[in-house]
Amino acid sequence: MATEALGEERPALFLRKATGLVRGWSVRDSMIYAVLATNFVTLGIYEFTFAQPPFPTGQLITAVIISGIWVSFLVIAYTGLIVTIPRAGGDYVWQTRILGSGLGFVMAATGWWFILWLWAPIYGNILAVQLFEPLWATMKWTWPAGGAAWFATNHAAAKAGYTTSSLGFGPLGPTMLLVPAMMFFILWPNWGATLYGEIRGASDFRRVFTGMFTGLWITVALTVIFLLLMAKTVGWGFYQNLNSLDYNVTPQFGIWPYPFMFAGWLVHNTAFQVVLILVLSLWFFGWVGTLFLSSTRVIFAAAFDRVLPDRAAEVSEKRKVPLYSLILMLLPAVGLAAVYAYSTTFRTYTLDATLVIAVTYLFSSIAVVILPWRKPDLWRASPASKVKVLGVPIVPVSGLITIGLLVFCLVEWLSNANYFVNNKSSLVYMGAMYVLAIVVFIVARVVRRRQGIDLGLINKEIPVE
Question: Do 162 and 241 form a contact (C-beta atoms < 8 A)?
């Protein structure tokens, strides 16, 4: 039976008999979370500045649609993992149970804990270029009238030798090279996967899939609409010329070309322009909450397994959240943000932060592919094993397709400098984070063994709820 297939739970192995977390989220909440995580306003339009110029003949709309289709298979794969083991901790729990305790901890701790320290200053930089800079510019400057800004931008781009292609749907080759760039904002509909120990209906395949899939395709639809509106209003050539100038460090206005700032130009009223920027900043403030929320559950799950200190798994009686896990995210992030603000050298260390998260996803994809063979009883008891097309279980197949996506992106990121994620210093820093995770796990094994706790035995069991 399902309970027996999940393994004979031994609460004494874990920190306590229940996690203390509450299933207070609905599938609708998970859908909203997926939309915020795949945030086309804060991440998407920022990425367009760096994506299109090195691949001028590639088509963004086609790349976005292809990316959405490819990432849909990631959604299926992660849905299979979630309904099989619907526990807080997500990738950490799945990888430690399927791939092994040491490998699972190292991948999850690095990808969900240590690396996300770096995303705090990255978020801060995005806040500066998408809120403070355009807001200050709007209140301080008088925009050139009569289309002067439009003509000046296009003239500067032509003088620099930049050319743009019309917005369309081909050719396929250069467009496929845009797909790894699109992953910087489309790859995250499963960002809430670590929270499914707190989501109602987490064992229902259709409900879990619907939440992430809908969130992903809302983002795809909004992105396509945005690109069409940019072409219709300010002009596709103007938008691409702005991006090319900024990409080549010759910005026309001295700040990042924020598209919604330009949209405000259509109404010759400074108050309207300011309100527009402030309203759109809500996308950022909704998105920023996803930074620590997902990662704290990985820390919590590792502490619940006794890998990390017990206190990291303590849950606030009032808030029902793991406060000490939050502290383990917050304090290092604040410190690194201060370094980021004053050290241009350290900023280069953050360039490969996305790559490490993708590696974590890759190992979860491997886990879902080998799950039927590695844990046959667990697989047979899972709702995911019942989802088939022409008699073939689609979850492991989706895992294989997801592996193809992630390997393609990783190869391109590491071999093509146009993506800005193959910086040698950053790769060394990321390698050091993996070493740190290995050290933490080794120390935990030694300490817990002296306390009479076998971490290897714990990771053969499914965590209690």
Answer: yes
Assigned token pair, 3 = 């309970």
C-alpha 234 chain-centroid distance: 30
CB under 8 Å, gap of 24 or more: what pairs does 315-320 form? 315/19, 315/20, 315/21, 320/20, 320/21, 320/22, 320/24
Look up residue 212 and give its two tokens.
């992430």
- Which residue in 185, 96, 35 sits closest to 459, CA to CA? 96
Q: Is the peptide bond before 171 cis (omega within 30 degrees of 0)?
A: yes
* Distance of alpha carbon 324 from alpha carbon 12, whole angstroms: 22
The sign one gets for the Cα dihedral 88, 437, 409, 58 is positive
Closest C-alpha among 138, 81, 133, 21 to residue 364:
81
Give how far the C-alpha of residue 131 lies from the chain's centroid of Cα atoms, to the nearest Å.
21
In DSSP notation, 100-138 reads -HHHHHHHHHIIIIIHHHHHHHHHHHHHIIIIIHHHHHH
Tens of pLDDT, residue by residue over 342-395, are 999 999 999 999 999 999 999 999 999 999 999 999 999 999 999 999 999 999
Distance of CA 115 to the CA centre of its chain: 11
Of 59, 56, 267, the C-alpha closest to 157 is 56
Phi, psi (rounded to 5 degrees) for 388: -135, 155
Reference 329, options 112, 103, 38, 19; nearest CA is 112
Q: List beta partners, residue 116.
A: none
- The DSSP 8-state label assigned to residue 289 in this structure reads T
Q: Give bridge partners of residue 434 from the DSSP assignment.
A: none
- The C-alpha atoms of residue 110 and residue 116 are separated, in whole angstroms, by 8
Question: Which residues are within 8 A (CB) of 31 and not within 5 positions of it... i.e. 6 or more apart?
Answer: 210, 211, 212, 214, 215, 218
Q: pLDDT tens for residues 19-71?
A: 555 556 777 888 888 998 888 888 898 898 888 888 888 899 999 999 999 99
